[in-house]
Amino acid sequence: MMHFYPLYIDPGTGSMLFSILVGAAATLYFLIRALVLKLKVVLSRGKVSSDTNYTWKYVIYCESKQYWNVFKSVVEAFERNKTELRYLCSSEDDPVFETSWEYVKPEFIGEGNKAYAYLNFICAEFVLMTTPGLQVYQLKRSKSVKHYSHVLHASTDAATYRLFGLDYFDSVLLTGDYQAADIRFLEKLRGLPEKQLVTVGCSYLDTYSEKLKQIIPEKEHLFTVLVSPSWGASSLLSLYGEKLLDPLSASGWRIIIRPHPQSKKIEAGMLERLQTHYKISANIEWDYERENIFSLVKADIMISDFSGIIFDYMFLCNKPVLYINQDFDPRPYDADDLDHELWQFTTIKQAGIELYEENFPRIAEIIKNTVDNTTISAARKKARETAWQYPEEAGKRIYNFMINTEKED
């Protein structure tokens, strides 16, 4: 009797097969396009311009609605300047659809491989995205795109992407000048041509800064500790759980726990256990809102691990941070090829206070001392000036770069 077993393709092989199929489809697609263009030239006796090869001058691709805050001010700059923009997104409920635009044309193009297949065939002068890994996995450079640009969506190091994350872009838009050094180091190490590096500021921090101004302060403020970790086996909730939260709960202060969005998908069991354990603790709140800004503004101090939210909080709210377990395995990331420690790790040692497990029982005392620490206050100010340049100007600067680059090409 013959037995049939289901076919299994591992993710790496699946990615490779998809890339082969996309490459073959792209070759056929562009061959047909070239033939059609030549036919048009013949029929019009040479009057067809090669510019007809580009459907759009400017395109933004937003891979998830969470990145709307990165692009919001850029989109508004296009609308304000009456310049057409194609906004492609992979979230059907992207906030871009909540506004009626005259010059901005939003379009949902699907998720995952469906979106990549669409993007691999687009025709444009300039494409801007937060998605790394261009020309590394499924996302390929379209032959009908002149310029690909990556905008950093965090004020931390540019080398914290997965390997080769920025290598094949034509330009990278930085939040601070300091990020350029690591990119140049990797280009030289890997024999890559130098890409354009332009410091534009941090667009999503600009957007959050505006939102902060509109939030009405609490009438009766309670001293609040925000626990906002990353996710995974090395994150503070996974490693310490009740060991950290029990003494925090005993302090009597308001404790807001905001798990990383990925924790709900990967660590649902752990979160359910903790929520059940603290169900009767009146001073503990759980925050699963899409935006973190409301918890940030309530908090007097943050406790985190290696999450980038540390710098969002320090820069936007200018308040202290306690951090736990800054262990970071650089091997899957560009950082592994660097010959020095990342800026964010040297900076947090100056602008934050490290919290050790053996000190959890006296955490209330440590928090009181940290709030009044003037030394780390000065370090926070210096870090902000380094990593978030040109506050409130990012949208305008990104728009100007896109326009000027298209004109120069």
Tags for this entry?
single chain; 409 residues; alpha/beta; Rossmann fold; seven-stranded parallel beta sheet; six-stranded parallel beta sheet; 15 helices; 13 strands; globular
In the CATH hierarchy, the third-tier topology of the largest domain is known as Rossmann fold
The CATH fourth-level homologous superfamily of the largest domain: Glycogen Phosphorylase B
Helical content band: 40-55%
Ends: how far apart?
66 Å
- Our count of helices gives 15
Alpha-beta classification: alpha/beta
For the largest beta-sheet, the strand count, sense and barrel status come to:
7 strands, parallel
Beta fraction: 5-15%
Q: Please tell me the total number of domains.
A: 2
CATH architecture of the largest domain: 3-Layer(aba) Sandwich
Radius of gyration: 24 Å
What's the CATH C level of the largest domain?
Alpha Beta
Which shape, going by the Cα principal axes? globular
Strands in their spatial order, largest beta sheet: 3-2-1-4-5-6-7
Would you identify the regions where 5 or more consecutive residues have pLDDT less than 50?
Answer: 1-12, 44-53
Q: Could you spell the SSE succession in H and E letters?
A: HEHEEHEEEHEHEHHEHHEHEHEHEHHH
Number of strands: 13
